[in-house]
Amino acid sequence: MIKLIASDMDGTLLNSKKKINNEFYTILKQLKEDNIIFTAISGRDIFSLKKVFKDIDEDIVFAANNGNYIEYKGKVIFENYIQKDKLKNIAIVVRKFFKHNTLYCGKDIIYSESKVAKFIGILWGLNIKYTKDIMKIKDNIIKVTVFGKPSDINKNREKLKILNNEFMVTISGRFSIDICRYGGNKKNGIEIIKNKFNIKYDETMVFGDNMNDLEMMASAYYSFAMENAKDKVKSNARFIAKSNDDNGVVEAIKEVALVNEKAKL
Question: Which of 4, 37, 97, 127 has the fewest CB atoms lying closer than 10 Å?
Answer without folding.
Answer: 127
